[in-house]
Amino acid sequence: MAALRGLLVPEGLEAFNAASLWGEETTGGEIVSMAEMLPMAATKEQRRFVLVRRADRLREADAEALAAYAGRPAPTCCLLLVCDHGKSPVAGALKKGSVTLLDFPAPRDYQLARWLEAQARRLGIVLDAGAARVLAQGFGEDFVGAVSTLQRAALSAGGARPKVTRAMIEQLDARDHDANRFHLADAILGREPARAVTILRNLDQAGDSGYALLGLIESQLRKFLEMRGEMASGRPAAMAVQQKSPTLPPDVRARLARQLESFDESRLMEAFRIARRADRALKGHGSGNALAHMEDLVWRVTAL
Asked: What mean pLDDT do residues 125-153 have?
């Protein structure tokens, strides 16, 4: 999906020509309106890109609006509807028309090792058979977490064709019992959802409250907004980070600068809105649902 968006949306115009929505928070009419908007400053080959996650949570009335749109789609937009479940009002309505639905079933636990080997070949990673088996045994049917760990190991290995061994995966697995609050914020702003959820669950088991973790995340978002203000005045991201946190190690500052560059002001403001929504949910539903609300925040912010 990220590659498709990169092909269709000019760099620097993502805030204008790309939109990310959630099925439970939008309507069919709103989706159609977003799709029919003309793209800003786009060439003939470029389009608006509208992504709707959890589209299976749209209602029947919403599905009817989308089915009508599918009959005469806007030529200037790529509308992508992602459903967690195949049986849903929107899938049923679209099947009746000329829309082709693509099914991407998740690999079962006994298929995961071979599936990971295929993903490694696609990504240009040399993956030992023993490493694939360790990943499969450790993650079961959690293919998202398995691929995230594979990519982390490849980054550690380095090189044009990184080699990932069993020992590297076992070392990462040993480090995965991370209960560091600051690592949580780093994983979220680094767009590493699987790592962030792992840390969040470890923190929850250690007794950290959702309110405390949410406060930490909002504090980091405020720092990013302040540094974005420095960048708006012409200061490079690395210099803005250096001025804000001069005592951090150079590699940590470099990582923060990369994160800062990837979160423009509009994405940061949307992250704040997501955090405020999580805060209301925590106060309205009690601590019993705190972990679920915080996990929802992780997935939403890392998807921006």
From this structure: 83
Going by C-alpha positions, the residue among 104, 23, 39, 105 that lies closest to residue 78 is 39
Q: Which residues pair with 94 in a beta bridge?
A: none
126-127 and 163-164 beta bridge pairing: parallel
Q: Are 29 and 57 in contact (CB under 8 A)?
A: no
pTM over 0.90: no
What are the backbone angles phi and psi of residue 185, rounded to the nearest 5°? -60, -40
* Angstrom distance (rounded) from CA 113 to CA 140: 10
- At residue 206, φ and ψ (nearest 5 deg) are -80, -5
Q: How far apart are CA 256 and CA 254, in angstroms?
A: 5
β-bridge mates for residue 51, sequence order: 20, 80
Q: Where are the extended beta strands (E) located within the chain?
A: 18-22, 48-53, 77-81, 126-127, 163-164
Taking a C-beta distance cutoff of 8 angstroms, is the pair 70, 94 a contact? yes
Averaged pLDDT, 132-156: 82
